[in-house]
Write a structure and sequence with these properties.
This protein is an alpha+beta fold and 268 residues long. Helices cover 19% and strands 37% of the residues. The chain contains six helices and 17 strands. The strands form three sheets. Strands 7, 8, 9, 10, 11, 12, 13, 14, 15, 16 and 17 form an eleven-stranded mixed sheet that branches.
């Protein structure tokens, strides 16, 4: 999280409002060197922030010892990934007791259904299904503003446009990687909309870019928007991998990951 202070406030209160964390949790994270104010490390929640101060808050990554398994057979598991966990082979080795292999990746702060193979041949077979677009994926995104259309499809090309805090920024371009997303409104709130997104391609940041370029960025996705109409505060971009559906060796797999607490709290 990187945000600018709009009025004079104490650091702990500011972080509580922005993240939804308890005061106790905020203080514990401050003690772990998780916060900078105007580029300088700050460990005391009692300090006063002046208007215009820039606060950076990066809690340590989440490495749960027990993950919820949504589905399992002899070939693979589908687990419910928490926010904060980086999809890497190293983290797979460190996190899971059994040997599992990443089939695909979700962004660090994206929650939901993650497919892990139990053997290299199964991993390769599942990756081939992804490449052939034979695995249906559905995401839920809580986006800023009221989406007036009921549904639509975005079909364009994405290319690298720049960087933000070391991360590549992608955007539409005349040439690049083709990206296709079908979307549909699920529910409208006061100044936000819950949207179901079905990406037919798997480009980096695809849904995030497509929603932002529609004029409805995913709430608290600071890489693709700096201002929001919605008053909702979140500790991460509110994007969730809701469903995986595919046929594997004659068996239809159709698995959903329940909405996480921050979605439920904020959208009902």
């Amino acid at each position: 999280m990187r945000d600018k202070v709009e009025k004079r406030v104490q650091l702990a209160r500011f972080l509580q409002e922005k993240t939804g964390l308890s005061g106790k949790k905020v203080r514990a994270l401050l003690e772990k060197n998780s916060c900078k104010v105007n580029g300088h490390l700050e460990r005391f929640g009692s300090v006063w922030l002046e208007k215009g101060s820039v606060v950076e808050f990066f809690p340590p990554e989440v490495h749960p010892t027990t993950w919820k398994i949504l589905f399992e057979n002899d070939h693979f598991q589908i687990v419910d990934k928490p926010a904060g966990w980086v999809c890497s082979e190293e983290n797979c080795r460190n996190t899971f007791k059994t040997k599992l292999f990443l089939v695909h990746r979700l962004d660090k702060d994206t929650t939901g259904a993650l497919l892990l193979a139990k053997t290299i041949p199964v991993r390769d077979a599942l990756m081939d299904l992804f490449a052939k677009r034979e695995i249906e994926k559905e995401y839920f995104a809580l986006v800023d503003g009221i989406v007036t259309q009921e549904e639509g499809m975005i079909d364009n090309y994405l290319a690298k446009k720049g960087s933000f805090q070391g991360q590549t920024i992608w955007g539409s371009a005349p040439k690049g990687l083709r990206a296709i997303t079908r979307w549909k409104v699920v529910k409208r709130g006061k100044q936000e909309t819950l949207v179901a997104c079905e990406p037919y391609t798997g480009r980096t940041h695809q849904i995030r870019v497509h929603m932002a370029e529609m004029g409805h960025p995913i709430i608290l996705d600071r890489q693709y928007a700096s201002h929001y109409k919605s008053k909702i505060h979140a500790s991460r971009p509110l994007l969730h991998a809701h469903r995986l559906r595919f046929l594997f060796r004659g068996e239809l797999i159709d698995v959903t990951a329940p909405l996480p607490g921050d979605f439920i709290t904020k959208n009902g």
